[in-house]
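Input set for joint prediction.
Command: fold jointly, output tokens.
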Amino acid sequence: MARPSDSAPRKHKVTVVGSGNWGTTVAKLVAENTQEHPDIFEEDVQMWVYEENVTIPSDSPHHAAAGDQPRKLTEVINTYHENVKYLPKIPLPPNVVANPSLVDAVKDSSILIFNLPHEFIGNVCKQIKGHILPYARGISCIKGVTVTEDKVELICDYIGETLGIYCGALSGANIANEIANELWCETTIAYNTPPCDQRGKDGENGANGDHYRDSRGQISKTQLTPVPQEYPPLEHDVLYKLFNRPYFTVSMVSDVVGVSLAGALKNIVALACGFIEGHGWNMTAKTAVMRRGMLETIQFCQEFFPETVKEMTFWESAGWSDMIVSCTSARNWRYSKMAVERGVSLQEIERTELNGQKLQGISTTKEVMSFLKARGVQDKYPLFKAVEGIVDGTFEVKDIPVLFRHQ
Amino acid sequence: MARPSDSAPRKHKVTVVGSGNWGTTVAKLVAENTQEHPDIFEEDVQMWVYEENVTIPSDSPHHAAAGDQPRKLTEVINTYHENVKYLPKIPLPPNVVANPSLVDAVKDSSILIFNLPHEFIGNVCKQIKGHILPYARGISCIKGVTVTEDKVELICDYIGETLGIYCGALSGANIANEIANELWCETTIAYNTPPCDQRGKDGENGANGDHYRDSRGQISKTQLTPVPQEYPPLEHDVLYKLFNRPYFTVSMVSDVVGVSLAGALKNIVALACGFIEGHGWNMTAKTAVMRRGMLETIQFCQEFFPETVKEMTFWESAGWSDMIVSCTSARNWRYSKMAVERGVSLQEIERTELNGQKLQGISTTKEVMSFLKARGVQDKYPLFKAVEGIVDGTFEVKDIPVLFRHQ
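tokens >
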């Protein structure tokens, strides 16, 4: 089992993998906290940046000094403490250290925060596998799950199993720019501390890093290396101190499945709410659809993950709050509303408004429905089914209320 | 026990007590259903109207016929099938029968629907006591509860105990004018069918109308007279048929306490949301406050009504949907937002904007806090407490996030 050579107390080193608008925002708040808790964390926070050349905008205060020459983004961030490309005008703490080398950025870090677009995570995990501490732990800020006919895989489980570590999830009603500007909101962190990391406890079936129960309540393939005793215990309290800010209120839960699925299935419901409003119904109808969508979300979790899901999870920020915000202001909602208002298909909207970019809600809907159909239970999810029908043009928005008739 | 003289099948006669904008809307939809279910209900629906003289507006299609002379409101409703004063331009089914006599309107009715302002219910119950069928049953569309230092009394329990009958509650994210215009929404009906009315069952401690367990799970003072066998059984299915419309989707539950308290406590949360938005925070902060407010609502119900409250009730339309709509478009929210934006007190807003009319959220807040303080548990309800503090000027809106710091 990997152990530090000396047994002197050690601090957690933190790396944020990703530096987009949300990744940089998380790096900012985490770096503020490592400064406030020097006893627990190393002050410097590594942030992996996909290197590119940027020109500092002429309206930037740094333009005078930097000039018009293209500069490396990492160099700009480390010199001016601002991510001029992805989070302009937000001063970053100087202890956010931009690093263009993925492998170097994660080296020796005991806490890895994954915050980059869904589609890049596979490649990133491949590159860092074998280059991280065997006892590192992860937090995924990437919402959602991968659903196929065969299975539902949480992104944090995918990360954990690929890297041979434990990985939790952060999700909530969060808008990066608001948080970067320190406008108050809440979030939820789901982290089911592995038994081998629980101090002063008899880690039931895993005290020595044996296979533990994963998010699905099943015995994980992964054999964990416990976090060495020299580190502050990597449990809820330490993660709370790493993420909670006066403007970013954290709730800690253990239900990783509920948090992850709520963050994914809400996209189906957001499409439904856009359809409803596009059709001319008001807030009362929209809340009815949000409510039904949440009930189907809870039902989905309880049907397929009965061992681990807790109903109270859906009252967390990652549950109802994120549902409301996603159904009120997010992309899936906006463009599905537009489609109905214009009387065109969502595919048409993707072409004309999103230059062919895909709406996540559509793929989530199709994936979830294929999973349900493979089990013959799609009729137990009338709203999800209707959204697929509307996307396919086989169901009409005006018929949504019919779904909710008394059986 | 009162029984009809003959034992021929009988139908339920329905009376709506109240004829304001919401009362008339409910009379309309109920009358549509009595027409559709002539086997269960008498077609005519009595609607008690507080008599007054009205002049038909010149833009009304009935003006030509009616002229400028003041006419009795009941006569106008029964002639033109429109409540020109409280629900103008909405055609009512001809089987809505306006009746100026309260006692005559409730005579022989087995289903009484109470739908009038909170403050009139006491007087109305006094007047009809002894003039209703001993086996009548009630549905209260009046939201809320009466809270004093000593106790929390549900309006439907007050009605039931005053009249010696059982009374349930209808509550949801409902806007009368939208429903009158047949814009789709949902509602919740809470009705805990008394054992003595349950057909083909051995009514546990109440088969013969003995004292039954009331909403608080306590043995009720009321000795019920069972609904005679000649009537269709007055259970969930019959109430569903009476209220559900294609544009008004009904969910039936048994948790009268949860539904009633959610409908009352939401007013405290609506004030908080107004404060938050008035202060300049956005949707993400508002959902955080709604969420915390709902958690305190659930906690309140579970602390004081543990026997009967079910957590799933708060996912009903009367729970989360009504909370969202109340915190997005209702009076308490609108005026508390205005108060913070203008930097004045709510009392000042009541004076200048509401001609001294009171905001219900303020009295609900003070009543609930006095109940909590009398039990020394007010600190377990930080949001409710903060709202009282803001109303009193002893707490600042900007400090709301501080309430939610980790303990």
